[in-house]
Structure formats: structure tokens, C-alpha cells
Amino acid sequence: MTKVLVAYYSRLGTTEELARQLAARLGAEIDTIRLPSPVYAGLAGFWRGIWHALRHHLPDIACERDPVGYAFLVVGSPVWAGRLSAPVRAYLARFADHIGPIAAFWVSGSGRAYPGLALEIEELTDRVPLTTSSFGRREVLEGTAGDKLDVLARDIRAHF
Fold first, then answer.
1. How many CA atoms, within 13 angstroms, populate the side-chain half-sphere of residue 120?
2. How far apart are the C-alpha atoms of 66 and 80, rounded to whole Å?
3. Nearest to 102 by CA among 62, 70, 65
4. Domain with 132 in it: what CATH number?
5. What is the DSSP letter of 75?
């Protein structure tokens, strides 16, 4: 089976929940994009995250796995001010030259689709995501995201 990596950043745990469910459906390995300090914690961190997303700031990040060893990468991000979270942007910028095919999902408070996030990924990596999916935080918390997650997993498997 093709080696797949699901890499994600999650501030509140919602994106993490989806990443873990998706990795289980794909038989993929998982990696958390971490920050060396809790820069986005609390209310001040929320506003700092918005500011960093709007300014395209790339924070220092840490992760355990190098995506170069994987045939397929799936990234998961919360939506901050209609953009990818700053930690995911930093991850994609760091590994842009080391990744192959890519897919993505994101979670927003509004549940809107945010098609511009796929363009952000393309700008950062020079790769068009092969498939993407958007989720609302509410559907994840209520446990109603399963069908959409199944579709995303099926679409990803179709590419490897």
C-alpha cells in the first residue's frame, strides 16, 4: 500500500479529531504540526492567529515526520480569517520541495467552503491539491462529518 501521511495543526482539537479519523480510514500515518511555545493559546492567541494568517506569517514549527518519505500527503488546517492557519502555511512552505501529491481538508467555525484555501496550498507548494474538503466545526463536534469524511477518503484513495 502507498505510504500516506496526514499532517495537521489543531488549536482546539477539532482538526485533530478529523485528522485521526481520516488517517484511520486511509491506513495512514499521522503527524502533528506543533509550535515550540503556546503562541496561539487563549483569547490573545486567537487574535494573534488571525493577525498571523492575514499577514502570511510563518511561525517556527516542529513535526516528527518528514513528508519526503511518503508517496502522498494530506494536510489538515483550521481556517483563520478565511485563510490556512499560520502553522500549516509554515509546514507547507518548509516542505514544498519535498512533497509529492497532496490533498487537504480544513475546519471552520462557519462551515463555509473556503475554496481559496486550495489556491493558498498551490501558491505555497506549486502543486494543485488533488482533492479537498471543508468541514464545519459544529458537524465535527456533533459527529455528523462521517459521510463527508468517507467521501474525502475515497477521493484520496482514487489517487494512489
1. 26
2. 25
3. 70
4. 3.40.50.360
5. E
Grid coordinates representing 71 are 508517496
pTM value > 0.90 = yes
pLDDT per residue as tens digits for the range 38-71: 888 888 888 888 888 888 888 899 999 999 989 9
Alpha-carbon torsion angle 64, 147, 160, 96, nearest 10:
-40
Share of the chain above pLDDT 90, in %: 74
Q: What is the predicted pLDDT for the residue at 29?
A: 96
Query: How far is residue 101's CA from residue 73's CA, in Å, rounded to a whole number?
Result: 6
Domain that holds residue 107: 4-157
Q: How far apart are CA 65 and CA 53, in angstroms?
A: 24
Nearest to 59 by CA among 106, 30, 92, 108: 92
- Percentages of the chain per state (helix, strand, coil), in multiples of 5: 45, 20, 35
As for how many domains the chain has, the answer is: 1
Q: Coil, helix or strand for 132? A: strand
What ranges in 96-145 are assigned the alpha helix state H? 116-125, 137-141
Per the CB < 8 A criterion, the answer to whether 25 and 6 are in contact is no
